[in-house]
């Protein structure tokens, strides 16, 4: 028996697709079928181009995953530095936040100039767009520790490395996974937008070309697969969170 938490979203999705298929949205917004293809046309296009779409999805997902891992690792190191040396390290949080405010469309040409037009430039774009969330969240987790716990560590003559290992880093893990879940979706956006400018493969590249030649069912197929890949990426991170911090109150049923 399905719970209401599962059944209601499924019914809402089926209703949405039904209204779309019977051109309800076309009539409301005065759209033509070439502007908003029907779900059946998108599904047919996905079936006919399955191998290519699967290959391009894997390429984009590789960029997103690698870029997120690198960006999150750098962000975590920045948070460590900001916590260990507050006077000098906190300035790095400001810098990484400023970098995050730069639009992806401005970063793309720079990264292409630095790293070439291969996969490295998109990984660099994703890296730049995922550092801030990790740095800020991890720093908050390391700084927001219980003073009594810190006093207890000091009473046992624990050094700075021990305090970081057993208290600050452990306390930051829920914040780290929050940042990873944010980055799971942000990384897909960064990879796809980067492919719009400089790429010969990937969902962003295919979506851009499809729009230019008015192959809208193929373009919408890219959008659907990007959404599915983003959701799966998020669910993987969520599952890892349940495994690694099952001791945290947020993971208790």
From TrEMBL:
It is found in: Cell membrane. InterPro entries: MetI-like, MetI-like_sf. One of its GO terms (biological process) is transmembrane transport. It comes from the Bacteria. The chain crosses the membrane at residues 6-25, 56-81, 93-115, 175-198, 218-237. Residues 57-241 form the ABC transmembrane type-1 domain. GO terms for cellular component: plasma membrane. It is a multi-pass membrane protein. Pfam families: BPD_transp_1. Keywords: Cell membrane, Membrane, Transmembrane, Transmembrane helix, Transport. Belongs to the binding-protein-dependent transport system permease family. This is ABC transporter permease. It comes from Paenibacillus odorifer.
């Amino acid at each position: 028996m399905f719970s209401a938490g599962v059944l209601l979203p499924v019914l809402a999705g089926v209703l949405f697709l039904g209204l779309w298929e019977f051109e309800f949205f076309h009539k409301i917004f005065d759209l033509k079928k070439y502007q908003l293809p029907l779900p059946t046309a998108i599904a047919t296009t996905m079936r006919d181009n399955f191998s290519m779409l699967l290959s391009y999805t894997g390429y984009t997902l590789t960029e997103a995953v690698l870029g997120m891992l690198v960006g999150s690792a750098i962000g975590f190191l920045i948070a460590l530095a900001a916590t260990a040396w507050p006077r000098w390290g906190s300035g790095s949080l400001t810098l990484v936040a400023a970098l995050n405010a730069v639009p992806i469309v401005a970063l793309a040409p720079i990264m292409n100039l630095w790293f070439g037009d291969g996969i490295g430039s998109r990984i660099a774009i994703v890296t730049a767009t995922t550092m801030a969330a990790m740095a800020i969240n991890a720093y908050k987790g390391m700084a927001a520790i219980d003073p009594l716990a810190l006093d207890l560590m000091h009473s046992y003559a624990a050094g700075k490395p021990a305090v970081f290992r057993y208290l600050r880093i452990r306390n930051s893990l829920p914040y780290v996974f929050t940042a990873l879940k944010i980055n799971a979706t942000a990384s897909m956006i960064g990879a796809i937008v980067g492919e719009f400018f400089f790429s010969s493969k990937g969902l962003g590249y295919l979506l851009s070309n499809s729009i230019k030649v008015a192959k809208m069912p193929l373009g919408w197929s890219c959008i659907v697969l990007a959404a599915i890949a983003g959701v799966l990426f998020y669910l993987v991170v969520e599952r890892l969170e349940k495994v690694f911090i099952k001791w945290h109150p947020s993971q208790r049923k």
